[in-house]
TrEMBL record, chain A:
<dbReference type="GO" id="GO:0008643">
    <property type="term" value="P:carbohydrate transport"/>
</dbReference>
<keyword id="KW-0547">Nucleotide-binding</keyword>
<dbReference type="GO" id="GO:0005524">
    <property type="term" value="F:ATP binding"/>
</dbReference>
<protein>
    <submittedName>
        <fullName>sn-glycerol-3-phosphate ABC transporter ATP-binding protein UgpC</fullName>
    </submittedName>
</protein>
<dbReference type="InterPro" id="IPR012340">
    <property type="entry name" value="NA-bd_OB-fold"/>
</dbReference>
<feature type="domain" description="ABC transporter">
    <location>
        <begin position="4"/>
        <end position="234"/>
    </location>
</feature>
<dbReference type="InterPro" id="IPR015855">
    <property type="entry name" value="ABC_transpr_MalK-like"/>
</dbReference>
<dbReference type="GO" id="GO:0016887">
    <property type="term" value="F:ATP hydrolysis activity"/>
</dbReference>
<dbReference type="GO" id="GO:0055052">
    <property type="term" value="C:ATP-binding cassette (ABC) transporter complex, substrate-binding subunit-containing"/>
</dbReference>
From TrEMBL, chain B:
<feature type="transmembrane region" description="Helical">
    <location>
        <begin position="173"/>
        <end position="197"/>
    </location>
</feature>
<feature type="region of interest" description="Disordered">
    <location>
        <begin position="1"/>
        <end position="20"/>
    </location>
</feature>
<dbReference type="GO" id="GO:0005886">
    <property type="term" value="C:plasma membrane"/>
</dbReference>
<keyword id="KW-1003">Cell membrane</keyword>
<dbReference type="GO" id="GO:0055085">
    <property type="term" value="P:transmembrane transport"/>
</dbReference>
<keyword id="KW-0813">Transport</keyword>
<feature type="transmembrane region" description="Helical">
    <location>
        <begin position="231"/>
        <end position="252"/>
    </location>
</feature>
<keyword id="KW-0812">Transmembrane</keyword>
<feature type="transmembrane region" description="Helical">
    <location>
        <begin position="88"/>
        <end position="107"/>
    </location>
</feature>
């Protein structure tokens, strides 16, 4: 059993508390990503798990045992650092083997273990090189090799991809995921990049200002954000938010009235949760892919800017008193200045109470 | 992956430095050449010239002669003096490096743990370095003094240890000279190594901590290899400084008892200013310079080369 449990973990520097009582359980072999803007406390949380920062209060358990007072080396965790932290004067093979020096292995056994890890990471030809003779992606692999060889209970990643260029980042993202599929380990991964969080995680934990805003599977977080922060932070391009007002019709249900006077009918399936907000201001949110250009009787909007990306096109539309982004698939690309009819996926809209910034109807 | 990340600009000629070299570099170098020539090269060349003469301080009328070289290299004292110099230099250099490293490690560790008084400690150690060598010798002479007021001996007496003949016993005098020199020179090593220690990436230690490295392993596998360049440069500098030391010794022991602490620099000084033998002193100075350069060259061979750790 190598379950990782954070039970009310807090961190204070002097009188300032920066992490406020984090409760999180990472199940055995689960891949959990902590994501949030810089300064949200995600790295501090990870460093408390590693033992590099003291835990101010709360309890940390690895495999059922309390490890608060153990040194990093006694916690049986392995960590991959943002700058890789490879030992510069050791060869790749020595770097990888460093974590084995305490196990009483013969030279042949150790070399075999190093070779096995090197094969897994496809870095066999590099074993005799020094870290400075490696590219960023290669260093990244060596850093992972150094962690993997120890066969730890918990794997920790501290923004491991942020020093790589965009293309390599994509490649390594996939590779870390593939590695985890082949050799599952309880993993806590920290990043500020929501795409990394969405693509890699079994479960995403969104942090903000030292607290967990929401935790759940990626699609759950994406489709059913619980707060305005999560709705805005997850998803690229970001969710479109409009200031609006919910109005009750004379007879037939609810309407959303946008700042430019557009009135949208709340679909029957969504009516139940928000009826009590009738007559009140709300923030109306719609993901870019839920705005579709389609001839019909939908609202009309001018195309203000177009970004073509190949497989998809982002169109920026003058809509709802502000600018809305629509993600269009298919080959019909509108041009700037066109007036287009929109079809809105209102079943998937996100309504936010502006007084609490919580999503209306969320659990 | 290796194919895509390999450098592709093999065709471009390598740049030789920062920007184009001026068409005529000489005018730009002239001021430096002038001052180096005036203050460094000319005295060396003059010493070399004097070594091949019979010049004395009283009689500057010098004629070409190889007598001084023969007399100095054949002198019975030279062996003793060279052995003294070797012992003094080795002892002082190792003492300064070890103590300097120890204090630097202590200060860095204290700072990492936000201990108070680290700045004061650094300043105190550095204060020793700004004391002139002559004054340092005088201070240690008072500390080592075998009279009833001698600070060290009276302290020893308090804890019941019999007094030590620090300066009058030929077997102890060299150790005392080394202690005085190390005390003064440690600050220099400490500052150099402190700066080098501060520039070591902290995450290396964090990675080592996660890898369960003991403090000794951290010192052996991270700190010392990372400090290699600084330690060697430091060694070159203090080897040369120590070889040239005579101020501490002249005021502490005057080279005595007998020749027990007479090092090469002091021997050269005595030859010129007590025996008035300018030519002989020049021979010894040239010998000293040759030894310094050789040692520096040997140490420099171990310096990390750029591009290869």
């Amino acid at each position: 059993m190598s379950e990782l449990v954070l039970d009310g973990i807090s961190k204070s520097f002097g009188d300032t508390e920066v992490v406020h009582g984090i409760d999180l359980t990472v199940a055995e072999n689960e891949f959990v990503v902590l994501v949030g803007p810089s300064g949200c406390g995600k790295s501090t949380t990870l460093r408390m798990v590693a033992g590099l920062e003291a835990i101010s209060s709360g309890e940390l358990r690895i495999g059922g045992e309390r490890v608060n007072d153990r040194s990093p080396g006694e916690r049986d965790v392995a960590m991959v650092f943002q700058n890789y932290a490879l030992y510069p004067h050791m060869s790749v093979a020595q770097n990888i083997a460093f974590g084995l020096r305490r196990r009483k292995l013969s030279r042949a056994e150790r070399d075999a273990a190093v070779l096995e890890v090197a094969k897994l990471l496809e870095i066999e030809p590099l074993l005799d090189r020094r870290p400075r003779a490696l590219s960023g992606g290669q260093r990244q692999r060596v850093a992972m090799g150094r962690a993997i060889i120890r066969d730890p209970q918990v794997f920790l990643f501290d923004e491991p991809l942020s020093n790589l260029d965009a293309r390599l980042r994509l490649q390594m993202r996939l590779e870390i995921k593939r590695l985890h599929a082949r050799k599952p380990v309880t993993t806590l991964y920290v990043t500020h990049d929501q795409t990394e969080a969405m693509t890699m995680a079994d479960r995403v934990v969104v942090m903000n200002e030292g607290r967990i805003e929401q935790a759940g599977p990626p699609m759950e977080i994406y489709r059913n954000p619980r707060t305005r922060f999560v709705a805005e932070f997850i998803g690229a391009p970001a969710v479109n938010l409009f200031d609006a007002r919910l109005t009750g019709g004379s007879d037939d249900g609810l309407w959303i009235e946008l700042a430019d006077g557009t009135r949208l009918s709340v679909p029957a399936s969504r009516r139940a949760g928000c009826e009590s907000y009738a007559g009140q201001p709300v923030v109306f949110g719609l993901r870019p892919e839920d705005i579709v250009i389609e001839a019909g009787d939908g609202p009309v909007a001018p195309v203000q800017m177009v970004e073509t990306m190949g497989a998809e096109t982002l169109a920026y539309l003058g809509f709802g008193g502000t600018e809305a982004c629509a993600r269009l698939t298919g080959d019909s690309v509108p041009s700037r200045g066109d007036q287009v009819h929109l079809r809105l996926g209102l079943e998937r809209m996100i309504l936010i109470d502006p007084t609490t910034d919580r999503v209306i109807g969320a659990a | 992956m290796t194919a895509t990340s390999a450098p592709r600009r093999a065709a471009a000629p390598p740049a030789t430095g920062g920007g184009p070299a001026p068409a005529r570099p000489l005018p730009w170098l002239l001021p430096v050449l002038f001052f180096i020539g005036l203050f460094y090269l000319w005295p060396i060349i003059d010493a070399l010239r004097l070594a091949f003469t019979d010049a004395s301080l009283l009689d500057r009328e010098a004629n070409f002669s190889l007598d001084a070289i023969g007399a100095m290299l054949g002198s019975a004292a030279l062996g003793t003096v060279l052995r003294n110099t070797a012992v003094f230099t080795l002892g002082s250099v190792f003492g300064q490096l070890l103590l300097g490293l120890a204090i630097a490690l202590l200060v860095v560790r204290g700072e990492r743990n936000n201990l108070r008084g680290m700045l004061v400690l650094r300043t105190l150690v550095l204060a020793a370095w700004v004391i002139p060598g002559i004054a340092n010798g005088v201070i240690w002479q008072m500390l080592f003094s075998e009279a009833p007021f001698g600070a060290i001996n009276s302290t020893l007496r308090l804890v019941g240890i019999p007094p030590v003949a620090w300066l009058s016993n030929p077997d102890n005098a060299m150790m005392s000279a080394i202690i005085a020199t190390v005390w003064q020179g440690t600050a220099y090593s400490m500052i150099l190594l402190y700066a080098a220690l501060r520039s070591i990436d902290d995450t290396l230690y964090e990675a080592a901590a996660v890898d369960a490295a003991t403090p000794w392993e951290r010192l052996w596998f991270i700190t010392l290899p990372e400090l290699r360049g600084a330690l060697l440069v430091n060694a070159i500098l203090i080897v040369i400084m120590t070889l040239n030391t005579f101020d501490v010794i002249i005021s502490l022991t005057g080279g005595g008892p007998g020749r027990a602490t007479e090092v090469l620099a002091l021997y050269a000084y005595n030859t010129v200013f007590y025996n008035f033998d300018l030519a002989g002193g020049s021979v010894l100075s040239i010998l000293l310079m040759a030894i310094s350069l050789t040692l520096a060259a040997i140490v420099a061979m171990f310096l990390p080369r750029s591009g290869r750790p």
